[in-house]
Amino acid sequence: MPEFTNVTIIKKANVYFDGNVTSRTIQFADGSQKTLGIMLPGEYEFNTDAKELMEILAGDLDVLLPGQSNWQTVKGGESFEVASNSKFGLKIKAVTDYCCSFLSDG
Length: 106
Known about the structure:
Elements: E1 7-9, E2 14-16, E3 21-28, E4 33-39, E5 42-48, E6 51-64, E7 72-75, E8 79-82, E9 86-103
């Protein structure tokens, strides 16, 4: 979906890695959350408590998912999931626009 309606947006930015990764939190009426953000080229490692769906809206990156030994290339229009209570690596090759959805494990 190209837009979200009837949401609350948290004004304060989430800033990581000296500003190379930023996002804004969006809250939905049902209590679910997403973040919309930008990642600048570089290598990053993230920890996640919740299961995540990362939709890459534009950009070019490699991801190392939990339990994997090979990096996977992901480009704009593609997505990947990350298990809860895990960490994953990213190698951002071009400025990347993303939407992260926090999913329940149920």
